[in-house]
Design brief:
Blueprint lengths: L8 H39 L3 H16 L2 H17 L2 H31 L1 H16 L2 H12 L3 H12 L1 H7 L1
Amino acid sequence: MLTEQKIPRGQDMAACAEGWREKGGDYVDVSAGTLEARVHGVRFARTGCKPLALIGLIALLAHDIQRKRGLTVCVVASFLLILNLGYWQETMETLAQVLFATLVCVVIGVPLGIVAAHKPMFYTMMRPVLDLMQTVPTFVYLIPTLTLFGLGVVPGLISTVVFAIAAPIRLTY
C-alpha cells in the first residue's frame, strides 16, 4: 500500500545532473583533463622504465627502508611474478593511481589538519563530514563522479581521495 505510489526522484536527479553538466561542463572537462594528464605523467614515469630496472629500484628502496633481506627477496619475487604473469602494465597503472591519490591526500589533508589543530571550531564542524567520508563506501562516491566525469581514471581518483583524505586530516590534527 505504501509502495504503490512512487516518488519520482529519478527524473529530478537526472535533471539535476544534466544541469550540472550544462552549467559546469567546461570546468569539469578542464579539471578532468588536468587530473588525467597528471596521472598519465606518473604512469609514464613508471612504465617508461624497463621492468627489471624498476624492480631493482623498488627492491633497493624496500631494503633501504626496512633493512630486511627476506622482505627484499619477497618484493623482488612478487614483482617478477607480476611481470611473468603479464600484468606489469596494469600493476604500474594501479601503482601510479595510488601514488597520485596519496600525494593529493597529503597535499590537501595536512594543511587542513593543521588548520583544524589551530581552530577547534573548524575541526568541530569538519568532524561529522570526516566521519561520513570514512563510513560511506567508496562506490557511493563513484556514482556521482561517474555521472559527472564519465568512465576513466578521474572518477576513481576522486572517489579514492574523498574516501582516504580523512586519515591525513585526523592524523595531522
